[in-house]
Design goal:
This protein is an alpha/beta fold. It has a domain of 227 residues: 3-Layer(aba) Sandwich (Rossmann fold), CATH 3.40.50. It contains twelve helices and 14 strands. Helix 1 packs across helix 7 and helix 8 packs across helix 12. The longest helix has 18 residues. The protein is globular and about 55 Å long. It comes from Catenuloplanes nepalensis.
Length: 332
Amino acid sequence: MSESVLVTGGSGFMAGYIVRELLGRGFRVRATVRSLARADTVRERVATPGELTFAAADLLHDDGWDAAADGMDYVVHTAAPMPVGEFRGQDLLAPARDGTRRVLRAAHRAGVRRVVMTSSTATAIPADPGAPADESTWSDLPDLPRYAYPRAKTLAERDAWNLVRSWTGGPEFVAVLPANIQGPALDDDLSPSTSLIRMMLTGRMPMLPRTGYSIVDVRDLAVLHAEAMTSPDAAGQRFIAAGEFLWFREMAALLRDRFGDRAAKVPRRELPDWVVRAGARFNAEMDQLAPSLGVRTRLSAAHAERVLGWKARPAADSLTDAAASLFDLGLA
């Protein structure tokens, strides 16, 4: 019989691609959703042959996690609060930390062999902005609203390592640290990173902050999760998933070059740093952007390349495919 995998946060953008990848490799997949009413939507989004079932579980509550993990060989934990939607302006720390503990304890009680946690490169921000970062780097950020998301991700991942190290007999643990996730949207329920491209294409971003991201394609990220789950050499490791760094101005220029008249609303002018810093006093999004102004991140994925044979595709391809999917879906 094929092995079974529990994927938490099954209705998410990244989780959809991970479920696709695992089904394609012959695994039986159970995905958690907060409401089983979402199951048909997720099934249509994934659109891949194989055994896909669902379990209702919420990071904020204990109910459902033992039943979700029961009989599973692996857990891929992607579910996490983001500072958008229902969590905009809300506490991220407690849901991130408590939810991670709930998933891990359920996996431990169920005798799961290995847990792969989706962390973030936000957990590997060096003390010196722009300095090189690898899997040995850990963020150490002050308790300020602008750092709520990276602090939540960092503390949740640290909790996970401490918890699994306190147990004997497993499960094994692996952390995957994605950079900014791009790639084709599956439907109109967009991720925050894909929404950035939509804002550029639709003119909702009239000027470009002087910032940028290292980019990873969601399809490559799904492959990395699968390899981290199955490779004997991955146990006990962190893996940065990051490709090329692009400034916002470079992303915008790429979209204009690739899509011509369809990208006519993509901004050309950069927003002065002083405007962002002034606006940061009144606007949460600008406050979060302010520390990254003029900072080029230098994230190394050499460990994933060496241990798992993983390789990120060109960032231009990821952005092009993301934009093309938005046009195809009528969202740009």
